[in-house]
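Worked Example 4.2. Consider the chain below.
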Amino acid sequence: MFHSQKHVFWQALLITILIFSIGIVLGIVLENWRTSKISTLAENSQLDFLDIKLQSEIYSNEEFNCEVAVNENFKFAEQIYEEAKMLDRYESASRLTEDLKLQHKKYDILRGMLLINSIKIKKQCNSDYYDIIYFYKYNSEDLDLKAKQKVFSRILEQVKETKGSDVLLIPIAADNDISSINLLLDKYNIKQEQLPAILINNKIKITEIQTVDDVLNYLN
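Applying the procedure from the previous section yields the following structure tokens:
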């Protein structure tokens, strides 16, 4: 009986070690896959940066087709929005490394440039869509603030779904100490303690919302 119990013990131990080892291997494989995807995102953001910088030069110095410019700006906004959402999923699944934070800063800069391009296009083309800029805190661990920002994000997504191409939605993390983003905050008189904040057409500032109508009322 003693030998039988000992045999069962060693079997259980071996199975435990095997399961633990498989878990470690799968964890390493998954982390390597995430790292590979993040590297791909990094390469994409570098190309995006060059692309939007060239677009900005064209909008500043050349004649351009307004319809094409507006469509390209919306398409670019959607592209970097989807890439940034993918990055957010990786951030949720992994510990927040400096590489992830650096990548997030790149997307914030891209979104800032997207806003500048939109201002140039609207000025030259008299376009009537709405710029909605959502400034939020990325690094805060305050649970109440996180809950508030989730409400803001959900409402703005519903606004975008409702208004479609009438709205260019640009979320930007405002607490990453990026000089260009800090200049935008100063330009529009948005303080860190006021975040999250919504800016509509570079004029209307909103710091409290509860429903979709709280935003839609400014778009009619």
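The first helix runs from residue 2 to 61. Strands lie at 130-136, 167-173, 197-200, 204-206. Compare this with Example 4.1 before moving on.
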